[in-house]
Every structure is written in structure tokens, then in C-alpha cells.
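Please produce the structure of this protein holding hypoxanthine.
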Amino acid sequence: MNTNTERGAANVGVIGGTGISQLSGLVRVGEHDRETVYGAPSRPIEEGLLNGQRLFFLHRHGSPKAIPPHLINYRANIAALRDLGVTHLIAINAVGGIGADMQPGRLVVPDQLIDYTWGREHTFDDGHNGSLQHIDFTQPYDRALRLAIIDAASNAGIPHQAYGVHAITQGPRLETAAEVQRLARDGCDIVGMTGMPEAALARECGIRYASICMVVNAAAGLGDLPLTLAAMHDILQREASAVRNLLGELLPRLSTWGPK
Ligand code: HPA
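Below is the modeled complex.
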């Protein structure tokens, strides 16, 4: 256990995705390179200070080789953060926009999700401890953490959507136009590939979890630009910088929170 938890403060973790392989401005104070019983996390976890506030940072896709969304060891990532005492976890996800108010360049703090992934190791409950675990996942994101993110974004003047249904597809390919139409009919506002099982695993561990989604493209069939990483690059850069500012505003607020 680390000292922050012993003092009773929130212990913050950040999981970065596409476009956020480093947290610019993070002053590194340590690195944690530990295996879990589920294997190794995507990359050693950095411990650092952002504007003087301590956090743990993990890049979901790892390096030097990028791990595709369906092959990320989500269980190892969450277990490693849990073992470091992380109590509050902020996930950053790149997504495509579906709803009319989910244009590229927008940050979204989703309040709901629909899981379309398959075949991923999606639970810590392997049936071996003799008691079934049916977590309450009615609200998949932690409400208080979401509200703190929204409040911080408003305070910093960062345009954002405070609600949204996050569809999580299997990838690594992008969707067909018909699939995006189906997601729209299902009520989805944004679509990404990495939001699950991460959110459910965090809930299984009792870690408070919320997501900041960066809309980097109009979802398939909805926009004019080609769906290439190169086309998304500039938007991704701008949004990564907005996320960095948002975290700078958010972290001091969390430092006065208790662990639960
Ligand atoms: N679909 C799924 N995942 C994504 C997208 C998308 O359009 N853009 C960024 N990640």
C-alpha cells in the first residue's frame, strides 16, 4: 500500500489511450514494473506529479509496440493499479462521434455504455472463490468522479458534453456505416474500442472510475474525412492538450477526497 492511501486521501490513476501515451508535464517520481497474477500490465506504471499532485499513469496500448484494443490485458492493468492502491481512476478514450452534438474536437464525459465486445477476459470472477459476484453496473461510471470532471472542465472553460452513451466495439477495424446506424438506433452517442471490460473490472475492484472521451472523428458513414489515424492526428493533439489542462484543474479537487 502506498502512503497516500494510508493518509486516507484519494489515490488517483490515469489510463491514457490513443494520443495520450505520455502525460505531458508529469514529473516522474517512480516507475512500477510488477507482474500481477493475470500477467504484466501494458507497460510499467509511472508515478509522478502533475502540477504538484501525485498520480499513477498507465498507457493502455503499451510501448514500444502498440497493443490492439482486443489484446490489451485489461485485468492485469486494473489489478496492477489496484495493487498500487489506486482508488480513483480516470480513463482517457479516443472515440468516434455519432450524435449531432458529438463533433470531432469535443470532449465527452459519458454517463452510460453499451458493451459490444466479445472474447475478452472481462472479469476477475473466475468462480474459484466460492461466491458469485454480480456487481451493480446500473451506473457504469462513478457519479461523483464524473461530476468533478464536468465541474473542472466548466471551470477551465473547456467545451465538453456532460452526458453520452459510449458504445464499445471489438475493433481493431472501424465500424461499417450500417453498424454505426445500428449504434445510433441503440441510443449510442460515441463509439470506441477500449472502454470495456476496463470499466467493469474497476467496479469489481471497488475502484471509482470515470472516462473522458475525445471525439477524434465522425463515426463511419457520418463525416467527409477519411477514417485514418493521420486524419485524426491534429484533433488528437489538440484534445490531448485539453485533457492535460482538465487534469490539472481536476487533481487538486480530488486531493481533498477520501479513498471511498
Ligand atoms: N470507432 C471506434 N473506435 C474509435 C473510433 C471510431 O470511429 N475513433 C476512434 N476510436
